[in-house]
Write the C-alpha cells for this entry.
Amino acid sequence: MEFRKAVESDIASIMNIIRQAQEHFKEQGIDQWQNNYPNSETILMDIKNRNGYVLLEGDTIIGTASVSFDGEKTYEHIYNGKWISNDEYVVVHRMAIDPRYKRQGLATAIMEKVEEMCLDKGVHSIKVDTHEENLAMQKLLKKNKFEYCGIIYLEDGSKRIAFEKNL
C-alpha cells in the first residue's frame, strides 16, 4: 500500500470516497460533511497547498486525508479542556476510506503514515477534531491513543470535539 501526495487527476476518485462518506453521515443523522462540504474545490485547495494525500492499493485510491503542518486557526481556542501540548503539530482533516475497504485497519494505516511524517519533520503532536456524533472516528482516535482535549468551534460556529496525540 502506498500513501502519497494527491494530484489533480485524483480529485474524481477522492470525491467519490467523500460523497459516499457524506451520504453515510446523512443516513446516520450526523451533521458532518453536509451542505456541499468538502467539495472538489476544497480538495483542489488541499492539493495546491500540498496537504492532500491518498492511500492506494495498486492503482486504486482507497483512502484520503488532508495532512497539514500549517496549524489550524480554529484550534487557537479550546473550551472545557486544554491541549496536551502547545508545541508545533500536524492536523489531520477530511480523512475517509472507500466503504468497500472499511474495517481493514486502513484509517489506522493512514494515522501511522502521518506519525512517520511527523517524526521525519521533528513534530511530536497530532491534533484532530470530529463531530461529537461521529463515533467511528472517535473509536479510531481512541484506538490510536489520541486523548480527548475539549471542544473547538469551526469558523461557521459548528461544535467539534478535539483530540491530540503526542509522539
